Amino acid sequence: MLIAPFLVGAVAGGFAWIQLPLLAFWLVGYFAFFATSQWLRSGRRAKWFPPVRFYALLVSALGLLLVVLEPSLIWWAPGFALPAGVGLWAAAHRRDRDLLVGLTTVIGSSLMTVVAYEAGDTAQTAAPWASGAWDHRPWLLAAVQAAYFGGTVFYVKSVIRERGNRTFFLWSIAFHLLCLLGCVWAALEVDSRWWWLAAIFAVLLGRAGWVWKLVTDGRRITPKAIGIAEAVATITVSLCSLVVL
């Protein structure tokens, strides 16, 4: 969820040197967010604060460098305020595993697809949406990333933390089905190439039901195995979206 959206946007938008410091800022920003979350979750204990201070200073320096090198990137900052704010609030209240936190994190992560894509246009000097020529491609790519990772949030919770919770399982199935129907509609009304993504989401829908049935029947499937399968699915969805869109 951290790397794939950025790479999809960078590949689709074309490589530009500014994407390198942008990637560094994005990764260090995550480290700063994680360290701050751990500090807040601990009740602000002093021993957890040094990593917060270190990463906060580093990400601030990288952010300042980016603004100097490419001022237009600052227009995207407000888009990450809500996901970061929700995550930090949840960590402070020890609710960082809540469904809402996972979904808002997906939104923030998927937005980076658009940012990395737009960063390829180093001639951009104003807000990207103010030019009058709206490029829908990065937003579609971001939507596919959001759909996939949103489904992952439901799926992983349904087979690990919420294992046996039938209501949560039904939410997982409903979300995957909605994504599949969206791809089918796009294949019928927009471009037949969407059938490739529809096929992938059909597999993801079947997986959500099959794995849940296995774990609720007592079959032991480790988080590591689930994670490896998710890595393969992430690569498949990302590559397919770049071909289709």
Kindly summarize this structure in a few lines.
The protein has 245 residues and is mostly helical. The protein contains 9 helices and no strands.
What characterizes the major β-sheet? none
Please give the radius of gyration in angstroms: 19 Å
Compute the number of strand runs. 0
Query: What order do the SSEs take from the amino end to the carboxyl end, as H and E?
Result: HHHHHHHHH
What structural category do the secondary elements indicate? mainly alpha
Number of helices: 9
Outline:
flat
Which whole number gives the mean pLDDT?
Answer: 91
How far apart the termini lie comes to 20 Å
Q: Percent of residues in helical segments?
A: over 70%
Task: Assess the beta-strand content as a share of residues.
Answer: under 5%
Flag low-confidence runs: none
List its salient traits.
245 residues; mainly alpha; flat
SSE topology:
Layout: H1 4-13, H2 19-41, H3 49-69, H4 81-92, H5 99-119, H6 137-159, H7 166-189, H8 194-216, H9 223-244
Helix pairs in contact: 1-5, 1-6, 1-9, 2-3, 2-4, 4-5, 5-6, 6-7, 6-8, 6-9, 7-8, 8-9
Describe the protein's architecture and organization.
The protein is mainly α and 245 residues long. It is 73% helix and 0% strand. 33% of the residues are buried. The model has no long low-confidence stretch (mean pLDDT 91).
